[in-house]
Design a protein that fits this description.
The chain is an alpha+beta fold. The protein contains 7 helices and 5 strands; from the N terminus they run αβαβααβαβαβα. It binds flavin mononucleotide.
Amino acid sequence: MPDITHAREPRLLALDQLLSRRSVGLLQEPAPAGADLDLILDAGLRAPDHGRLKPWRFVVIRGEARLAYAEKLAEAAMVRDPANAATLAERYRAWVRRTPMLIAVGAVVKPGNIPEIEQLLAAGSAAMNMLNALHMLGYGGMWVTGPNVYDSNVNRLLGFEAPSRLVGHLAVGTPAPSTAPVPARPDRAAHVSEWTP
Ligand SMILES: Cc1cc2nc3c(=O)[nH]c(=O)nc-3n(C[C@H](O)[C@H](O)[C@H](O)COP(=O)(O)O)c2cc1C
């Protein structure tokens, strides 16, 4: 066992925090800024990364830029799905209006020995680290994909040209008061087995 006896209690408290994380769809102001946002982004940059490629790219979308971003999502929907573009445009406008901040998370995928999936997993791990950091600082977040994340126009707008790509948006803010029950968590036994020869 690692020698952490002297500092076990604070570590257990931190782990308790991790175990109580949940995704928060119902968000309100404020979004993290300044030193809090730096800590959250730094947590993203502590994700594992095969080959030290540092594929992580985070695009912060906040303030008035959110509304302009929603218009870009609406334009992309017009190209992708013209029959439903008006409905989608309203959906995206409403989404950004009620979301204090978005962090678009992507991977700059480099050709070479490290498989693409590992570079994408590194970006996904960064997203997870940021969700954990948000929660530990008292903020809330939710990982959202949907068709925008797979749309090459949206990817290009945020600086991702194939094979580089987005892996998701983090919707970020402060948890709004909610009566939603704490979600049931998976039964460990259903997900864990021990391999024996
Ligand atoms: C890669 C990825 C993409 C997701 N995309 C969406 C999405 O587009 N819309 C949505 O409602 N939930 C999406 N989710 C699920 C939520 O982020 C969240 O994990 C889920 O609601 C379970 O909540 P929990 O994190 O508290 O267990 C996605 C999750 C992952 C990992």
